[in-house]
Design goal:
Keywords: Cytoplasm, Iron, Iron-sulfur, Metal-binding, Oxidoreductase. It holds the Pfam family PAPS_reduct. It catalyses: [thioredoxin]-disulfide + sulfite + AMP + 2 H(+) = adenosine 5'-phosphosulfate + [thioredoxin]-dithiol. Catalyzes the formation of sulfite from adenosine 5'-phosphosulfate (APS) using thioredoxin as an electron donor. By secondary structure, this protein is of the alpha/beta class. The protein has a single domain, classed as Rossmann fold, CATH 3.40.50. It is built from nine helices and six strands, in the order αααβαβαβαααβββα. The protein has a six-stranded mixed β-sheet with strand order 3-2-1-4-6-5.
Amino acid sequence: MSESSAPSLAERRERQLAHDRAREEHHLERAALAGQLRPRERLEALAAEGARRFADAPAEEVLPWVAETFGYRTAVACSMADAVLPHVVAQHLPWVDTLFLETGYHFAETIGTRDAVESSMELTIVDVLPRLSVAEQDAEHGKDLFARDPGACCAMRKVEPLQRTLAGYEAWITGVRRDEGPTRADTPVVTWDDKNALVKINPLATWTFDELLTYAEQHDVIVNPLVSDGYPSIGCAPCTRRVAPGEDPRAGRWAGLDKTECGLHT
């Protein structure tokens, strides 16, 4: 784009204000239609129905069912390694709540991706916060708990805050894919999440990493710059390293420790 055709500061500001107004208007409409969450037994039955119907279904088949069945009682979980998952979901649920686990230990690039996604896409970022700040956790449990007991750190900064937040929804959508490693090879497209007591949908379960990047390129979807710098799976900065050629995408998470998952999907 030439300098003369680039939008002015005033035009960019108005575009951002219009974007924010559209989000606010959607939330007002959504609030007027909000109802009570359905009982656990009904949600379990819906999970069983979805599991039967969509065992290996692509996202474009399962997501219309999610939108019709759960509507805005649905949340998307996004680590901000990329925005492909919320982009796919927003085609069926524009302005969907998109949960970001603000652990206090993120790479600067991840926070920048989060901010860019919020300002440019038809979704609603919900920052999921731990009960303790990093400083409060250090004071109560000792500095750098992640190095001494990463399981306890993840439990406090990821698992408990997410479980608390998910209590306000009937279904949650994640970006877990079967190609990410042995622990995720059998990921179902639809399942019952007993730990969080709601329906869990993994619409990208059958996608490969290359398909994810191709989708992002074709649809101009934001991708965390760390992905092209050797980080195909991005978590907290102290617990994530680059992945060497030939390693599985999650090899850089908690490298050298007997830990492969943070507890969100186990």
